[in-house]
Amino acid sequence: MMRRIAQTFLVIAILFPLHVFAWEPVLDESNSWPLPEQTDPLTDIARLDLRDLNEAESGQSGFVRLSPDKNDFVLGDGTPARFWIVGTDAYRFPPEQMDRHARWLAKLGVNMVRLHVTVCDRSPGSKITNVDEELIDGVFRFIQSAKKNGIYVLLSPFYAHFDAPASWNLPGGEVDMEGLLFIDPTLQAAYKQWTRTLYTRVNPYTGLAIKDDPTVAILQIHNEDSLLFWTMQRLPDHHRAMLSDHFSSFLAERYGSTSAAWDAWGDGWKGNDPLDDPQNGQIACLKIYDLTTDVDGAFAKRQRDTAEFLARFQYDFYRKMGKYIRDELGCQQLLNATNWRTANDEKLKALERFSYHALEIDAENEYVGSDFQHQGPNDGYRIDPGDYLVNESVLSKPFEMCTNFRQHQGHPFIVTETAWKNPNRYQSEGPFLVAAYQGLTGLDGVAWFSCQTPEYERDPLKPFWRTGDQMSTHKWNHCYPAMMAGFPANALLYRRGDLKQAAPILVDSRTFEEIFDRQIPRITDNEAYGDQRNLPDLSPDWTPDGDEVNRAAFLIGPVQTTTSEEHSPQDRPDLSSFFDPQSGTITSATGELKWDYRREICTMDAPKAQGVTGFLKRNGGTFELSDVTIESENEYATINIVSLDDQPIQDSKKLLIQVVTVNRLTGYETRPATFRLGNKEDSPEIEGEQIVRIGHPPFRIANTEVTVTINNPKLRSVQVLDIAGYLVETMDVSNGRVTLPKNTIYAIVTTND
C-alpha cells in the first residue's frame, strides 16, 4: 500500500488551490437492501460463474512468457493472455478458506493474484538469514488453491518498510531498511538466502518448487523501494558512505580519477558535502533532494553524473538479482524489478524505468483518490469515527486515472496495486474504468489491493480498535460489494478483448542523454497533485508549452516510449478530433469510450459491451448507445451490458446486465465539515464530511432504479440473480425492455432457446 512517508511528502499539494466540495447525503437506508449474511455456497447451479474462462489448472501449457513483440503476455502454448488481478492476503487464511477464496475469485473473473509478502523473519532475536516458515507454508498452500482454479500468481517476496532487528547486526543497528538492499552486501546475501529457500524448496502441496511451477507466472524483486525516492534522503551514514564509494568508482572509471571528475565539472559551486575529498578518491553521492532542483554550472554537471550513476547502479542491481534468480536458482518465471515512483517524477521517473529494463516487466503502484480524501490519526490503515473525508469520483479528474502510464516498447506494464480507497462512496466506477482503459491502451494488468477476506466483507468492524463507544474499520479491504460485485462483466469484457486496442497515439523517443540529464518528457505520467478538477491541461484555453503533449492522450490511446542513442525529430500528435476542452470530453481513438469530465459520466459503446458509469440522474438519466438505451433514477451507478455468448449484443442469445450502486454499513452517518489538510494551521480549508458513526453490519446497497432497452428482438426472458449469481426470479422481456427489481446486481437476458 502507499507508504506514510509518501503521504508526508505529498503535503506539497497544499501549495495548489484546492476545490471546495459540497456534502451530500450518503445513503437513504429506506432505499437500499442488505448484503445477505449467507456466504456463497459455490455450487454448480449458479447462473453467473466465470470459472470456465480460466484453464482447468493454471500453467497447464507451461510458463507465461512474452509475446513475440515483447509488449504483452502469452500462455505457455502461445495463446495471448490478459490478466484480471487482485492482491490478496489469502496466504494467511486457513486452508479451507484458501480454497473457497480462490474458487470465488475465479467465479468473478480473476485469473491472477499478487501475493505481497516479506519472507524474512523480522522478529526480535532472529538471524538475518532466517525466514518466516509459517508465511512460506501459507504461500505454498495457497499456490495449490490458485492452481486448482486456473489462477496464476505474481509473487513479491520483500517489502523494506520496517526497521531491522538489532540481531541482524547491520551497521547502525535497528536501521530503517528502505534503500539498503541496493547497497548492503550482507543484506543482499541474506535476500539471496531467503529467495533460495522460497523458490527452490519443494512445495509439499503441489510437489513442485516455485522455480519449476508455471502457476507462478511473475516474480517481483521487491515492493516499493528506490534510491530515487525521498527515503534515500535519510540513508544511514554508513550506507550513504558505501553508496558514495560506488559513486566515486563510477566517476574514476569515467574521468580517470575523482579529482579529474571534480576538475571536469568546472569552476563554481559544486556542493559542500563532508564526504567530498576528491584528491583522496572520494566524492559523495548527492542526496535525492539535490536531483529535484534546477541549477546551472558545475553543480548541474554533478547532478547529471549522479543521476546517471543512480540509474545505472539500480539497473545493475536488478540485472544481478535477475541473473541470480534465473541462472543460479533456475526460476523460469518472468521478472519485474519493483513498482515504485520517485521524488520528482517529471525529472526522475525515466531514470527509475531505465533501471527496471534490466528485467522484462515494468510496474507501478497507483491509487485513486487524493490524500485529503480521508484524513484522521490512523488514516494509513483504518477508518475511525471523527475522521474527515471528501467523497470524490475520479470521473471529474481524468488525469488521476490509474491506467495513465507511458509504456515502454518491449516491456509489458502492470499496475501492481490500485484501489478506489475506502471510505470513498464512488467505488463502482473502478472496475468499469479499469477494464475500459486497459483494453484501450493495452496495459497488461491492474491488481486491486487487497482482498483481506475470503469473500465479501460482511463485518469489517475491529473490536480492538475503538473510538469512544464505537468500533473502527480497516481501510484497505477491497472485498466491499461496490467494488467486487463489478468484476464479472468488466473482467469478461477486458479478458475477452471486447474493446479495441487503439494504435499508439504517441511514441515518445528519447535519448539516454535526455534521460540522464533529467529533461522533462513531452508528456508525463507522474502523480498529479493539488485540485485535479482545475488542472491547466483541462482548461478550455490550454495551449502546449513547447512540444508538450496534453495528458488527455492517455485516455485516447496508448502512449509508448522508446530510447535511442541519437535524437530524432518527432511530430506532435493531433488530439483535436478526440479531446474537446471546451465541452470537457475525451473520446478514445476507437470511438468506443467517451469520458465527460465536467458532467462526470463515462460511456462504453462496443459491439459486445456497452454501458455507463457516473452521475446518471443529474445528467438526465437516459443514455442511448448503439444497441441499448439505459434509463436510471440512480444518482450514481455503474451499468454494464455484456454479451455472454461472445456475440454482438444485437445478435446475442445471452446477455448480462450488471448494475452496481453504492454501499455503506447500516447506520453509517456523516455531517458536513470543514477541515485543513494535515491539520496544519496554514493549510487551505476543505469542505467535506466528518464521520459521526461507522455503523454496523450488514452492508446496505443502494437500490437499483434501472430500465434497459435492448435492440435485439430475439430476447424473451430475464433471469434475475442474487449477488452470488443464483436465480431469484424469472421475468418476461417486452419489446426488448427490462425493468430491474430494486435489489438487482445481475440479470441474464436470454432468447429462451
Q: Would you kindly provide a written description of the structure presented here, covering whatever features stand out?
A:
Helix 9 links the parallel strand 15 and strand 16 (445-451). A ten-stranded antiparallel beta sheet has the order 21-22-23-24-25-28-29-38-35-36. An eight-stranded parallel beta sheet has the order 9-8-7-6-5-16-15-10. The chain has a four-stranded antiparallel beta sheet with strand order 11-13-32-31, with no helix packed on it. It is 20% helix and 24% strand. Helix 5 (237-255) packs across helix 6 (258-264). The chain is built from twelve helices and 38 strands. With 753 residues, the chain is an alpha+beta fold.
Quick description:
α2 (95-108) crosses α3, α5 crosses α7 (297-328) and α7 runs parallel beside α8 (345-356).
Task: Tell me the layout of helices and strands.
Layout: H1 4-9, E1 32-34, E2 65-66, E3 73-74, E4 80-81, E5 83-88, H2 95-108, E6 112-116, H3 133-148, E7 152-156, H4 185-200, E8 216-220, H5 237-255, H6 258-264, H7 297-328, E9 334-336, H8 345-356, E10 362-365, E11 374-375, E12 382-383, E13 388-389, E14 406-408, E15 413-418, H9 429-441, E16 445-451, E17 461-467, E18 470-474, H10 481-484, H11 487-496, E19 506-511, H12 512-516, E20 559-564, E21 579-580, E22 585-587, E23 593-596, E24 601-605, E25 609-614, E26 622-624, E27 628-632, E28 637-643, E29 654-660, E30 663-666, E31 669-676, E32 685-693, E33 696-702, E34 706-710, E35 717-721, E36 727-732, E37 737-739, E38 746-750
Parallel strand pairs: 5-6, 5-16, 6-7, 7-8, 8-9, 10-15, 14-20, 15-16, 19-20
Antiparallel strand pairs: 1-33, 2-3, 3-4, 11-13, 12-18, 13-32, 17-18, 21-22, 22-23, 23-24, 24-25, 25-28, 26-27, 27-34, 28-29, 29-38, 30-33, 31-32, 34-37, 35-36, 35-38
Helix pairs in contact: 2-3, 5-6, 5-7, 7-8, 9-11
